[in-house]
Amino acid sequence: MKPLEIAKDIYWVGAIDWNIRDFHGYSTYQGTTYNAFLIVDEKVALIDAVKEEFTNDMFSRISQVVDPSKIDIVISNHTEMDHSGGLPKVMHRLAKDTPLYCSNNGMKNLKAHFHQEWNFQPVKSGDELSLGKRTLSFLETRMLHWPDSMFTYLPSDKILFSSDAFGQHYASLERFDDEVGEMIMPHAAKYYANILLPFSQLVTKLVDQVTEMGLEIDMICPDHGILWRKDPGKIIQAYAEWAKQTPKKKVVVVYDTMWHSTEKMADAMVEAFKDLGIEARVMHIRSCHRSEIMTEVMDAGAVVVGSPTINNNMFPTVADFLTYMKGLKPKNKVGGAFGSYGWSGEAVKQVNAELEASGFDLPNDPLRVQYIPDGDSLQACYALGEQIGQALLKKVE
Predict the structure, then answer these.
(1) Most buried among 116, 178, 245, 376, using CB within 10 Å?
(2) Is the confidence at residue 146, as pLDDT, over 90?
(3) Catalytic residue at 374?
């Protein structure tokens, strides 16, 4: 449980969570980290805490640098409990009047979380805080991804403490991008697709704002995953591109099936996409986690959803995915609905209605097939795939 000096007198003192596999509906099959940072100057500052059950890990690392009770300043960039859960134990060990810096919304959230009257010091964009030789500045980043979110910037070292932006759910002994390599980018993309996608317009504004401010950044330190020191501009540029939601010549076929009939329909549609030269990702919902599906959806130009009918409704797993996807608000997508049924067949219309409510372009009526698809019905599936594929090709031209 050693700390890591990431720059002179600046330490990573966070925690590694090797075992977490679900993060409020997001699959974390390689765990995560809760990053916290200690700056030792004339005043000692702790930037963010960790999830409550990992607080002793953080104290162990801090203790190897300074006595935790000697911390003069605490900064909370984000009040979600995976970063603020350890704050009560932190504040308990410090002097009663130790200042806690956060955004104004952060102060409201922390009071509502912990019902404590700590020495809150709310800050806004442009405010500065001297530690002695170093001075911190603050930048509010509301709704990236909570109303309280903010960045802390250290201009002397060109380090950006970026809260939940630019992170990844990834547990490792390595702390930096150059130690992990290119394999970290899919984790960063998954993180964006499942957490920040609904706020893409704000991401674009933030990237523009940082560019206009001329902030020099040699290192980005997010609250999850590795730190970006080799090429921090790479992840900033990736966010700029992901925020555009530019559709690719790619379709995601998402479905569930009871007796393989809806699956056969999906396979026929995929043949049409293949013949049109369109990349197709086929994802059976019970075999693929919703967050993995959303990672593929993020840059796809089309999403086609299939469901059998059960008890006059769409299949529960399909309803779950559509609800999840709707909340993440993907843009610039062609959509389509299909499915098999035995008696009444309501599911396909319900799926189509959900796609329409989510803002998808629906160039064709939904397609449903009773019981097992035969030659004619499979040809109709192929034809629907052709029509959706042609609408996609027109969109990406």
Answers:
(1) 245
(2) no
(3) no
